[in-house]
Amino acid sequence: MIRAAAIGAYLATLLAVDTQVGYGGQLALGVATWAVLGALLVRISAERRVQTLGVVAFATVGEVTGSLVWGVYSYRLHNLPLFIPPAHGLVFLAGLSLAAALRERWIVWAAAAGAAGWGVAGLTVLPRLDVAGAVGVPVLCAFLLRSRARGTYAAVFLVVAALELYGTAIGTWRWAATLPGLDVPDGNPPSGVASGYIWFDVMALLVASRLRRRRREPEPRHLLLGLAEGDAAN
Known about the structure:
This protein is mainly α. The protein has nine helices and two strands, in the order H-H-H-E-H-H-H-H-E-H-H.
């Protein structure tokens, strides 16, 4: 819980400072954030390290696609700040810490209720109509209620939701009023934004799981025999 709070405080400070600097300042913030992520990575297990780096990789692809290519949202300087990729890793680590500190049932139901309520509000009472966000809410809730990693997903949702509300409020980034090319109304931030982030987590956990299984798989018998015969011949 302490780690989650510390990461949250760092990210909140990071986004606030970003609103006051230019490209050079963003570069410095990026270097600092990569350093913070690196310091945390050396303190966790190899499996968690692989998962975190996987989140960074998949999230970076998503950022380039969603922001720079599609234009669904844009950062203040209309670029992809260097601190964004490692910040995704920090969000994931904060979610892991939060999930470990709280009861899974409570956090899952809190996240599901929060996502559903946010989605309904985006279709009814919020200043901007949020159809695109509402579409993502059922996907998010399905993962929250059925996945074996639902505790982690729920915790990450809470962290992402807080950062999205904070980041858009202070102007670090802004979501387009409609999805470019589709004209589907979108919120700022959209209620289902965390559903996209959950996909980064899903892919990272899947890749890490497959890598772990491959490490544990014994060498095929014919290869072992071949190696033994080769050693004997030598």
